[in-house]
Amino acid sequence: xxxxxxxxxxxxxxxxxxxxxxxxxxxxxxxxxxxxxxxxxxxxxxxxxxxxxxxxxxxxxxxxxxxxxxxxxxxxxxxxxxxxxxxxxxxxxxxxxxxxxxxxxxxxxxxxxxxxxxxxxxxxxxxxxxxxxxxxxxxxxxxxxxxxxxxxxxxxxxxxxxxxxxxxxxxxxxxxxxxxxxxxxxxxxxxxxxxxxxxxxxxxxxxxxxxxxxxxxxxxxxxxxxxxxxxxxxxxxxxxxxxxxxxxxxxxxxxxxxxxxxxxxxxxxxxxxxxxxxxxxxxxxxxxxx
Amino acid sequence: xxxxxxxxxxxxxxxxxxxxxxxxxxxxxxxxxxxxxxxxxxxxxxxxxxxxxxxxxxxxxxxxxxxxxxxxxxxxxxx
Lengths: 290, 79
Ligand code: SF4
Hints:
The structure holds two protein chains of two kinds.
Chain A: E1 13-15, H1 22-31, E2 35-36, H2 37-40, H3 46-51, E3 56-59, E4 63-64, E5 74-75, H4 85-95, E6 100-105, H5 116-129, E7 134-138, H6 146-154, E8 159-161, H7 171-174, H8 180-193, E9 198-205, H9 211-223, E10 228-233, H10 250-263, E11 267-270, H11 280-288
Parallel strand pairs in A: 3-6, 4-5, 6-7, 7-8, 8-9, 9-10, 10-11
Antiparallel strand pairs in A: 2-3
Helix pairs in contact in A: 4-5, 5-6, 6-8, 9-10
Chain B: E1 2-5, E2 16-22, E3 29-30, E4 35-40, E5 45-49, E6 54-59, E7 66-68, E8 72-77
Antiparallel strand pairs in B: 1-8, 2-4, 2-7, 3-6, 4-5, 6-8
Bound molecules: iron/sulfur cluster (SF4).
Keywords (chain A): 4Fe-4S, Cytoplasm, Iron, Iron-sulfur, Metal-binding, S-adenosyl-L-methionine, Transferase
GO biological process, one term (chain A): protein lipoylation
Pathway (chain A): Protein modification; protein lipoylation via endogenous pathway; protein N(6)-(lipoyl)lysine from octanoyl-[acyl-carrier-protein]: step 2/2
């Protein structure tokens, strides 16, 4: 049945891989019964990343206890915690021969520690089975729990990532159950606990934020110990999600990138298709070279 | 005959996309890696490259059609 065409500006265009070794990545993930944020959030880079053999594991089920209005991950009653998951992640990661492993999770406000111990178990399994690989965790806000942050940081990830996602003024529309200041505190706590660990955060643009607000976020992040920044275009996963207010031209992303570097971030990725985990390995390298 | 299928766009088997425009016509010679067709999803526009070389013998998805991942977009006659 023909449907009305959706129109995107010319730069919101991805090229799919001609030879999708994606099948192999998909097969490994299915065999180990693992979720990825790539699929669950309908990331437009999935074809590219899977063909390159990378993916971002999503722990603690496929159902999120929050209802952020930008995100395609399913919302509702969470799944029981599976203690075999850390091992399955490590097995899949070593089969995929990942040199940089990125793990995230749905938000689990139902768990007393928000899933922190589970993250720590995954980091430990990865360290045990893949001592050479670097590990990046992209964690939820743990409802601000310092203790949960400590549990994750002590397990020793190379990069501690928590996204602020948007500017302060848009939190009520975009992340109604989150709190901008609380997210900043999570980053600060992580940095204080382990100053040599890289701390990373990111935001989506195109939700109606003003450029001055984006610069405010950059300043706040730096003041809270953040080393790495990612900025990407918000893309609406379905007509039920928040609309895109603006498709920023690539030059705007470059400008944000320049501003952020000048302000003092050690590594910045800013482009329309940048996602928090996109090219994470290269971004981490850049940060480490400074 | 080689079947060019819609590759994975990220959301598994239930994923679908709309054909927005073909870059070639039936009878055209295709080189491996040429962008064959442009598709759109809710999130973005995607170019689907040809995994093989050959003659585009039949286009099976018209502009405006909704295609699921894995469905055949076109047939390539391999020389
Ligand atoms: S950018 Fe991140 S979420 Fe998107 S496909 Fe790549 S690894 Fe997955």
